[in-house]
């Protein structure tokens, strides 16, 4: 008969383990004592841990947003700050859903409701309780909405601006010239923009601009011609 290998993976112990000598009842009591020495966190402790984790995540997002904001041009940073200030109607340094949506649209990002809500959920902070709620003892306060602070708004918008195709930015500028959405910039459009910007260009200069960049000879500058001007 073949002998069993002394080193086989299923080798039976020649003697019982030390644990097997302990009665089952005592083993159960020892396990319960070990578990009780590390009690589960209380609800208050769990909430504190969750708040600490949320604060750490917000700080990480703020650092990342600040780094992205630094990559923008001075003009772009000013534009982001002005959009926030314009739509922060109560001037509390935070904007709600509606203010965020119009501020993003003003910067060229017409995003759907789901995206705006996702931004608030990820980067926002709960709105503070009303004074009446603070004066009501024993009543738990439920946050009615999320608000986006300035630093978070700057980080979110910086990331979107950096990820935007340069052609989109140019075409956005084209739309500012193209009054009525006709798809072309006319001499009249140039007159209007020059007047609004206070450039004081002469009629001959405006005509020369059209003639220089009007490749198809229709007396106007279309989108592709405008892209060619801006992209060189």
Give me a quick take on this structure.
With about 230 residues, this protein is mainly alpha-helical. The chain is built from eleven helices and five strands; from the N terminus they run αααβααβαβααβααβα. Among the domains are: about 55-125 and about 145-165, EF-hand (Recoverin, domain 1); about 165-230, Orthogonal Bundle (Recoverin, domain 1).
Describe it:
59% of the residues lie in helices and 5% in strands. It is built from 11 helices and 5 strands; from the N terminus they run αααβααβαβααβααβα. The strands form 2 sheets. A 3-stranded antiparallel beta sheet has the order 1-3-2. A two-stranded antiparallel ribbon has the order 4-5. α2 (43-69) packs across α7 (150-163), α3 packs antiparallel against α4 and α8 crosses α11.
